[in-house]
Amino acid sequence: MRAPILALKTVRLADGPLMLFDGVDIALDARVRACLVGRNGAGKSTLLRILAGQVEPDAGERNLAAGTTIAFVPQEPEITGATLLDHATAGGAPDYRAEAALTDFGLDPAKPATGLSGGEIRRVALARAFAEEPDVLLLDEPTNHLDILAIETLEEEIAQSKAATLIVSHDRAFLERVTKRSFWLEYRQVRRLDQGFAHFDEWAEKIANQEAEEARRLDRFIQREAHWMARGVTARRARNEGRKRRLESLRQEKADRLKDTRKDLNMGIASSGVSGKRVVEAKGVCKAFGARVLLKDFSTRILRGDRVAIVGPNGAGKTTLVKVLLGQIPADAGEVKLGTNLEISYIDQARGALSPEMTLREVLLPAGGDQVLVRGEPRHVVSYAKDFLFTEAQLRQPVRSLSGGERNRLLLARALANPANVMVLDEPTNDLDMDTLDLLEDLLADYEGTLILVSHDRDFIDRLATSTIGLDGAGRTVETPGGWRDFISQNPGFFARLPVAAFDAPKAVAAPAQKPAPAKAGKLSYKDQRRLEELETLIADGPGRIAALEASLADPGLYGRDPARFQALTRDLDALRGQVAAGEEEWLALEERREALGAGR
């Protein structure tokens, strides 16, 4: 058995009076793909920095195999250099690999490294990490600010990388696709599961049940010992001193357990009353900024109780569509009608409603006082803030001192206090941990109003959406019943002709489009050649995978035993058939291009 290439042993670290890690052991084997899961504030980012060698623990060992190289992409990367290529090569990657990695992530290597959008910053940092071809790749929330297409590109890059990869992420669908091992940071220590994230929830539930039973046994034992002490057996006698110390030790153990018990969010949501049956109706809507067309002859009808997801590349016009539908910005052509009795709550992805200098108290109480009206009932602001895991001391702190996850929770606290029958959530999942996401999903599932959701989180969309609207950023729109998987299975290739992220920073007037660099005479570009190889693999493997799914669906008793699995397999089969069909067409086009280039030599 090979030794791990990177490992921590009995690591301890305190942040002031708070103990973050107390005897942490974690090991990464060569080429393993693992996730690190834990609540916000558990110390996941700090643990990655210890693994990267950027933070020294108070005690314990960090062992790195000789010659091992590490690339670390933090939550908030800083891009330096004059151009994107300068940054991508700053870690030692050769120009050709850096250019290829940037192109794979839909970026122009010659673009200036200033004025970048959040999605561009993330993709530049990821491109640099992959271009360096490290032995260990540490990724902290790598899907934040990425659109779905960029996330799928990231999944492909991880699958092709030879690096041992450890990922901190809240994106369930992403983790299920790329990981083969799971680490759980809980109660200042790390547990290990030698399976991917798809098996994490079941494993974590078993552990929680075991710990609950251990806690009950401890309580019963303490009660027996306390009863024994209370029956008059004096603790002064030497032979009883040991038992007394044992009782005190057990009580301290219970106190430590209570101190470590995770605090739970106590979010609630309520509809403000019944809106009209028709919430929004749009007919023939068009919207452009200069020469850039975002919506072209778009029509939809959103009825009371619908849950509509809006998907597409960054900058394709998702937020613009929401604002047009809500009447916040006018359409260039067409008609938008809003229903009656609408009370709208809008959580903005930019968190622009939060002034950095405002205190949390001012955000929750803009008119002053100390009572928050929560769904019609007065609540003291301190009590309500605690529902969202904010302390009384934090209420006096400015918004700028909060982490991304805390800012999102603050927006939710303010939005959910007010009853609304239309809830608009624009990228609500950024920076939220999985427990918070699960609770938010449960609340929204029971919400009686209408939901409009802009998100890159495929699992979040699949769990909530009754219909999905896709935008390609060039005016084309398609609406499909169901979530993300339903959209892709019914519209194979809808985004295939787009770069990974063609529209990162929409402006009032679109900048002139840059012409792509011409391919070298006589051969395909590096990116096209690589895509051709991917398509050949898809076309070769596709029939076997289709046959396997068809064989599973041929089981006559499957639907009766497990209708959910039957439906999932059916969706997977439809999606795979669509991917293979689209892949064959794309392969043929690339082959024709390669032949034409060859003929021209």
Can you put this structure into words, describing what you see?
The strands form five sheets. The chain has a six-stranded mixed β-sheet with strand order 5-6-7-3-8-9, sandwiched between helices. Strands 14-17-18-12-19-20 form a six-stranded mixed β-sheet, with helices on both faces. It folds into five domains: 6-201, Rossmann fold (3-Layer(aba) Sandwich), CATH 3.40.50; 202-260; 265-343 and 419-517, Rossmann fold, CATH 3.40.50; 351-413, no CATH class; 526-599, Helix Hairpins, CATH 1.10.287. It contains 18 helices and 20 strands. It is globular, with a radius of gyration of 27 Å. A hairpin with a 2-residue loop joins β1 and β2. The protein has helices spanning 44-52, 84-89, 95-104, 118-131, 148-160, 172-178, 200-230, 238-260, 318-325, 360-364, 381-387, 404-417, 434-446, 458-464, 484-490, 526-553, 558-561, 563-599, and strands spanning 6-15, 18-28, 33-37, 59-64, 70-73, 136-140, 164-168, 181-186, 189-193, 278-289, 292-303, 307-311, 333-338, 344-347, 371-374, 377-380, 422-426, 450-454, 467-471, 477-481. α3 crosses α4, α15 packs across α18 (563-599) and α16 packs antiparallel against α18. It starts with 5 loop residues before the first strand and ends with a helix. With 601 residues, the protein is α/β, with parallel strands linked by helices.
